[in-house]
Amino acid sequence: MCGIFGIITSQEQTLGPILIEAAKRLAYRGYDSVGSATVWASGQIDLRKDVGRIQDVSTRLRFAEMRGSRGITQLRWATFGAPSQPNAQPHLDSDGDMVGAHNGNVVNNVQLRELFLREGLIVRGTNDGETCVHAVERHFDHNGGDMLAAIRSAYTDLEGDYAFVITHRDEHKLYAIKKGSGLVGGLGDGFTCLSSDLPSILPLTRRIIRIRDGEIVTLAPDRIELFNVADGAPITRDEERYEGPIEVAEKGGYPHFMLKEIHEQPTVANELLHLLDSTPHLARFVEALRATGDRPVYLVGSGTSYHACLLGAYYFNRVAGCSAVPCLGPQFIEQYANSVGPQDTAVFVSQSGETKDILNALKVMRQKGGRVLSVLNVLGSSLAHASDVYLPLACGYEISVPATKTFVNQCVLFLYLAFRLAGRKTDELSALPRLLAEAVEVTDAPSRKVVEYLVNWNALHYLGYGMTHPIALEAALKLKEITYAHCEGMFSSEFKHGPLAAVHDGYPVLFFTLAGDEAMMINHINEVTTRGGRAIAVAAEHPILRKNVHDYLPVPASDPLLAPIVLTIPAQLVAYHMSVARGIDPDFPRNLSKTLTVD
Ligand code: M6R
Asked: Does 430 map to a domain?
């Protein structure tokens, strides 16, 4: 999730400090590289950028001294194209007349780069932000030097969800477009500006203009104009006044990052599916999985990432008939190190890419000469550097300590890989983002209702069967992590082998149930209810199941392969609402940190 900011002023001035401050305000979105460009009144472009923290890069490259009457700054969170100086943004066009930067993902980036190179454009990196600039450049001459027309033509070439800002040295204007990624304008005294989101604008002005998808925006020092990308027609939009605190704006209007990130899941799942369709990394990844032949693939993760590995193993088996061994990093070392060799493949799964347990296991796999694949959210991480090939989760920065959107995308990615291994069309997965969006909407109120009962219990059980077993484990982890209650996740058929003894009057047990498993689950539910326990079903609507439980948390009906991922949403919402009800800050639970770099 990159961030862009642009400003245009009536007079040339020192813009560096404004750009640094805006970058700092965007930093909560996550980034690995930072860059700024200014355009002097004479039209000269000053571009400075590199990989690293804002403080380090801006000091080393002396951003503070940058002057101009137009300025653009960008924070890059790498999705494709490694974090590197050429891939850092903003980018110049071939002859250095234009400069621009983007936020989002251009999914046909690889094809467009090949086209640009064939046409003789000068492409300096592999990043899709550069693709946006060249996409405008190649139409600029054909449109008689008309930026608006060139951007409209570029829009038809660029597939994906993005927003970008661009300027031409000879025209005292900034241009931007929004398609799926955030963009908001700000009106000040003697300047206008725009940004991926509000927090970087609010210290400058509270007068804002909301930009919608399919709109091109032009900024002059005294006005912001909007145009419809489809026909170029001007759009009238009144400015608004934002009165809220900046901290609320950072959380997208949600009270906590966790809730914001839960709500982002349909979008990031959609983006990941598009990215996987178009990335050349995927073929290499699938090839390496296939090369392992009849031997099992090891799926190695910790915490939430381990739970995704558990579900991944089900998917590999059910969809592709491939055997996979899910394991924890230290478990991989202790249980499998002596039996793996060059013929084996392990997929190391880590949101942060820095978890020591996972890097230790990777080191052992390297020593044994096996193939090292990985799945990660932070592209410049140690895991990315140590892998033969990796796939990104493309979630943007996950701030909240409890992993939510990265878990969903890990599961989506495993399901996608299973489809590819089976030679099945992945467009069968295209319903998932809609189902997730529906789940976020319809399960919130019932989750709160369930929490009214759970909130006073300090011990409870979550049970799943088959593919919902990993979801029960993940749901239990989430509840423990942010409510401090003890919650054990189990395979439902195992409950009678001991833990059933914990059941007494009103003892809460949640049953995560897949369509088709209801009859089996009703047996396990009755074991609980006949002993005075309170059974709560989390499942798509099923009249007989409903009759057998005390409470029902209904989720949208879906294909059984998609359903475990859909069931994750109410599990997250229950944990979130219970955390808040207990007065805990779910974003920063006690004793925990987002990245665990210790043994
Ligand atoms: O960065 P990683 O995916 O390697 O992190 C692994 C675990 O530490 C992490 O998933 C942890 O369990 C989460 N905070 C749970 O929400």
From this structure: no
Give yes or no: residues 357 and 487 share one domain.
Answer: no
Same domain? For 261 and 342 the reply is yes
Q: What percent of the chain has pLDDT over 90?
A: 86
Query: Of 250, 272, 290, which residue sits at a domain end?
Result: 250
Place of tokens 């209810």: 529
d(CA 486, CA 9): 57
Pocket test for ligand 1, best of 258, 304, 395 (most atoms within 8 A of CB): 304
Co-location of 374 and 472 in the same domain? no
Q: Which of 305, 358, 376, 390 to mutate to test the pocket of ligand 1 (most atoms within 8 A of CB)?
A: 305
- 464 and 407 fall within a common domain: no
Q: Is 549 helix (H, G, I), strand (E, B) or coil?
A: coil
CA of 546 to the centre of ligand 1 (A): 34
Q: How confident is the model at residue 82 (pLDDT cuts 50, 70, 90)?
A: confident
Q: Is the pLDDT of residue 481 over 80?
A: yes
3-state secondary structure of 163: strand
- DSSP code per residue over 222-262: TEEEEEETTT--EE----EE--S-HHHHHTTTSSSHHHHHH
Model confidence pLDDT, tens digit, residues 507-523 = 999 999 999 999 999 99
- Relative to the CA of 407, which ligand 1 atom is closest? 10
The answer to whether 2 is a known catalytic residue is yes
- Total domains in the fold of the chain: 3
CA angle 350-353-356, nearest 5°?
90
In this structure, the residues whose C-beta lies within 6 A of any atom of ligand 1 are 302-305, 350-352, 355, 358, 401-403, 477, 481, 596
Reading the block at residue 504, the tokens are 């007494």
DSSP 560-594: TTTHHHHHHHHHHHHHHHHHHHTT--TTS-TT--S
How far away, in angstroms, is 47 Cα from ligand 1 center?
Answer: 37
Give me 108's structure tokens: 């046909």
pLDDT digits (tens, 9 = 90+) for 253-301: 899 999 999 999 999 999 999 989 888 789 999 999 999 999 999 999 9
Asked if residue 25 lies in contact with residue 199, where contact means CB atoms within 8 angstroms, the answer is yes
Q: What is the pLDDT of residue 20?
A: 96
Distance between Cα 521 and ligand 1 center (Å)? 29
Same domain, 130 and 41: yes
- Does residue 78 have a pLDDT over 90? no
Task: Output the domain CATH number for residue 352.
Answer: 3.40.50.10490
Which residue, of 219, 250, 281, is where some domain finishes? 250
C-alpha of residue 403 to centroid of ligand 1, in Å: 6
- Shared-domain flag, residues 263 and 370: yes
Q: Are residues 65 and 213 in the same domain?
A: yes
Ligand 1 pocket test, pick from 300, 306, 349, 351 with the greatest ligand atom count within 8 Å of Cβ, gives 351
Give 326-335 pLDDT, tens digit per residue: 999 999 999 9
Q: Counting every residue, how long is the chain? A: 599
Range of the domain at 98: 3-250
Assigned token pair, 127 = 């990043």
pLDDT at 1: 63
pTM for this predicted structure: 0.82
